Amino acid sequence: SPGRLQDKKLKITKFNCFAGRVLCHLDECGVEDINEAVEQAKTAFNIWGKMSGMERARTMIEAARIIESRREEIAQMEVINNGKSITEARLDVDSARLCIEYFAGLASTLSGQHVQLPGGSFAYTRREPLGVCAGIGAWNYPFQIAAWKSAPALACGNAMIFKPSPVTPVTAVLLAEIYAQAGVPQGLFNVVQGGQETGRILCQHPDIAKVSFTGSVPTGKKVSLYGIKPVTLELGGKSPVLIFSDCDLENAVRGALMANFLSQGQVCSNGTRVFVQKDILPEFVKEVVKRTKSIEIGDPLLETTRMGALVSRPHLDNVLSYVNQAKKEGADVLCGGEVFLPSDPKLKDGYYMSPCVLGNCTDEMTCVKEEIFGPVMSVLSFETEEEALHRANDTTLGLAAGVFTSDVRRAHRVVEHLKAGSCFINNYNITPVEVPFGGFKMSGIGRENGQVTVEYYSQLKTVFVEMGDVDSLF
Ligand SMILES: NC(=O)c1ccc[n+]([C@@H]2O[C@H](COP(=O)([O-])OP(=O)(O)OC[C@H]3O[C@@H](n4cnc5c(N)ncnc54)[C@H](O)[C@@H]3O)[C@@H](O)[C@H]2O)c1
Ligand SMILES: O=CCc1c[nH]cn1
User: Fold this and answer.
1) What is the ipTM for the molecules in this complex?
2) What is the annotated signal peptide range for this record (predicted)?
3) How far does CA 202 lie from the centroid of its chain?
4) I want to staple 146 with a disulfide (CB 3.0 to 4.6 A). Which of 72, 76, 102, 172 is the partner?
5) Distances (CA, A) of 416 to 234, 253, 403
6) Beta carbons of 262 and 374 less than 8 angstroms apart
């Protein structure tokens, strides 16, 4: 309601990441707005939660169809929202659509179990929705995260109130429009805008049954303490990629680039610690540096661009400060790591930098220990499999890990010992919606995508049915 929002004092200023200009101002939602969204969601849930899975699926499939028909418009809006290249933004829109299609397919499969008990009695289980769920998004995949959270929530019969990051507030609103156009009950998927205070109010609301959060470890810790309600936490990473000398080098180089430079390096699962077996290190580094230097940086709306702008000026400054710190600690900047000025004068205030490869890295360096969340790859060398595994696992995080080798036995032996929720063999950073995604250790709790996610958006009710008399002890 615009009338209500105009009363709010706190404002979000959204910048266009690739030109550095003010894009819009938004009012932060407060208690009243959130109460209103929750009331609407409860009303919608009373309708949606009672529908059959097939009925819900039909509406969700319509939402997926609308996304497909608006693909280019959403992708262009995501470029303005986030700064990533149009090529990647289109893939994000596709992933959002596929996720909605996938969970629409699962909606009618939700079922329980029948258990026979003595004397003809029996019990059965029912998988029931939780109610009104909160989704909190990070800024790196704004549209996709909103879909990855809402699709399983809605498929299981829940309502969702979604709060995007204030850094990228725009495209989640398009998803709300699309669900409404597809015919979900009014308020079933609503968007509230704001930062940490809005997020806190939303998560702590007594009628919010579950929180699904994507963001940093420190914020995730706060969210996990908000109350006795189920939480899914998709947090940060500092993931390792192990490149053995028996690998297909061409694929290992491609994999290392995919592990570091998608979305300007702003990907939670990025494999930023690249461990390379000593005997192939010179060859690997030469090829990685050559290809990194040839990455086309600039206007993210151009088809030829492969790296757009980082998400904000403060974030760019932070990433550059990590590169400086790495230099001070003895790493070699093999390429990049500098502010990039596009030739188009309209883009001169955008947040661009050249992708960076750091050589001569050691495990103690800040660039190897901390999540930089920018286009900075740290290359380390190792000699034995045992050593590489020990060093790869020597972190409090455990989101993802990769291994490149042609030895099938080594590949499976290594992933068995890697302490990470998503492991890749001879590839990196693919996220098909049919498979679960999520972290070990401090990288998170729970999973997104795949069949298992149904368990995180529903609750199991057990019903005991007595067919005889009550055998009372009294
Ligand atoms: N594992 C994953 O799937 C995944 C995906 C994307 C990003 N990430 C992680 O997210 C981080 C970058 O994103 P970010 O900077 O937006 O993270 P962030 O933790 O700063 O913010 C995430 C969201 O939480 C909200 N928030 C902040 N304080 C809150 C509070 N006290 N209560 C409730 N909500 C609050 C923010 O407004 C934002 O919407 C990185 O660490 C990255 O690894 C993880
Ligand atoms: O950023 C981490 C991986 C991901 C992609 N989409 C949502 N999360």
Assistant:
1) 0.95
2) none
3) 20
4) 172
5) 22, 23, 11
6) no
Residue-wise pLDDT tens digits, 457-468: 999 999 999 999
Annotation says 72 is catalytic: no
- Atom 32 (ligand 1) nearest CA: 200
Tell me: the pLDDT tens digits for 418-433?
999 999 999 999 999 9
List the catalytic residue out of 62, 234, 371, 385.
Answer: 234
Structure confidence by residue, pLDDT tens digits, 79-104: 999 999 999 999 999 999 999 999 99
What SS3 state is found at 176?
helix
Q: How far is the CA of 404 from the centre of ligand 1 (A)?
A: 30
pTM: 0.96
Q: Could you tell me which residues come within 8 angstroms of residue 362 by beta carbon, excluding any fewer than 6 positions away?
A: 330, 368, 380
H runs (alpha helix) in 70-163: 71-82, 86-107, 142-155
Question: Of how many residues is the chain composed?
Answer: 474
- How far apart CA 221 and CA 194 sit, in angstroms, is 19
Enter the tokens of residue 460: 């199991």
Q: Are 398 and 421 contacting, i.e. CB atoms less than 8 angstroms apart? A: yes
Cβ contact 182:60 at 8 Å? yes
- H or E stretch at 160: strand 159-163
Looking at residue 185, what DSSP letter applies?
P
Ligand 1 centre and the CA of 368: distance in Å? 21
Ligand nearest to the CA of 135: 1
d(CA 191, CA 169): 9
Q: Give the dihedral sign, CA 399/256/303/305.
A: positive
Cα angle vertex 354, ends 292, 249, to 5°? 15
CB under 6 Å to ligand 1: residues? 136-140, 163, 165-166, 195-196, 199-200, 203, 214-216, 219, 222-223, 234-237, 268, 371, 373, 399, 444
* Residue reference for tokens 């995080």: 397
